[in-house]
Amino acid sequence: THLDEQIGRVLAVAEDLGLLERARVMYLSDHGEAAGAHGLFGKYTLYEPSAGVPLLMMGPGLPAGRISQQLVSLVDVFPTIVEAASGELAPEDATLPGVSLWPAITGKDDLARPVFAEYHAAASRTGSFMLREGSWKLIYHVGMPAQLFDLEADPDEARDLAPTEPGRLAAMTARLRRIVDPEAVDARAKADQRRRAEECGGTQAILKRGAFVYTPPPGTPAAFRSSVS
Question: Residue 55 in contact with residue 27, Cβ under 8 Å?
Answer without folding.
Answer: yes
